[in-house]
Amino acid sequence: MYPETDVPPIPILAARLEAILRALPELPAVTAARLAETHGVGPEVVRELLRLDEVARFEALANRGHAPSLVARVLTQDADGARALSPEASRELTEEELHFLLTAVREGRFAKEGLAAVMARTLSGTESVEAALSASGLTGLTRGELDKIVERVLDRNAALIAEKGARAVSPLMGEVMREVRGRWDGKEVAAALAAGVTRRVAGAGAPGP
User: Fold this and answer.
1) CA of 32: how far to CAs of 40, 56, 75, in Å?
2) Which ranges of 2-94 does DSSP label H, i.e. alpha helix?
3) Residues 67 and 129 in one domain
4) d(CA 42, CA 172)
5) SS3 162
6) What residues make up the domain containing 153?
7) Closest alpha carbon to 171 in 204, 194, 187
8) CB of 58 within 8 A of CB of 72?
9) Could you tell me if 115 and 170 lie in one domain?
10) Alpha-carbon distance 187 to 154, whole Å?
11) Buried b vs exposed e over 163-201: b needs ≥16 C-beta within 10 Å?
């Protein structure tokens, strides 16, 4: 290649090169290493955040005190679920709206399993996130009400429990969660169901009077 003789050379100053270097995006490997160190995020999650261009919002929300794993789930999974439930939506939730919802979960106002539903209701045109949360019906389930739901499901499935014993927990979990509807944390629901099944199994095996 020969130099262009009709165009004078354009000097590139060191200051300009430095400005270009500062403006370059972070290499994915560097981002992955940094997020792993600061927030304990695994490489697969980082890849999804990078693919969705959500690294900045992830860091902003995690730095506001929200659990990094839950923030990542909201941005990479629940957001898709919300869009599927509200396909007519033409916008994304703002950082402040997500902050409000994550704070509500942290304060125990509703379970994280209900996030996609509340996000979808917000995107569908509900006046505010607070209104969406109130209208969702996901708040207000007490521990006593949870226990009653579990007992109803156990009563309906006595034959299954007699047949499978402790292995009945897995097939019954979906039925309980459909009634709970995101109003209680899934791990606690599973624990309550397992305890109920254990009681039924122990009672069935107890000797009669």
Assistant:
1) 10, 13, 16
2) 14-23, 28-39, 43-51, 55-62, 68-73, 79-85
3) yes
4) 31
5) helix
6) 143-204
7) 194
8) yes
9) no
10) 18
11) ebeeebbeebbebbbebbbbbbbeeebeebbbebbeebb
The total domain count for the chain is 2
pLDDT band at 127 (very low <50, low <70, confident <90, very high): low
94 in the same domain as 45: yes
pLDDT band, very low/low/confident/very high, at 138 (cuts 50, 70, 90):
low
Tens-place pLDDT, residues 160-198: 999 999 999 999 998 998 887 766 777 888 999 999 999
Task: Give domain status of residue 8, yes or no.
Answer: no
Query: Residue 52 carries which DSSP code?
Result: T
User: Is residue 55 within 8 Å of residue 44, measured between CB atoms?
Assistant: no
For 71-113, write each residue's pLDDT tens digit.
999 999 999 888 888 888 778 889 999 999 999 888 777 778 8
Distance CA 192, CA 111 (A): 15
H or E element: which one contains 148? helix 143-156
pLDDT in tens, 34-56: 999 999 999 999 999 999 999 99
Residue type, 120: A
pLDDT at position 141, please?
Answer: 66
Residue 23 domain flag: no
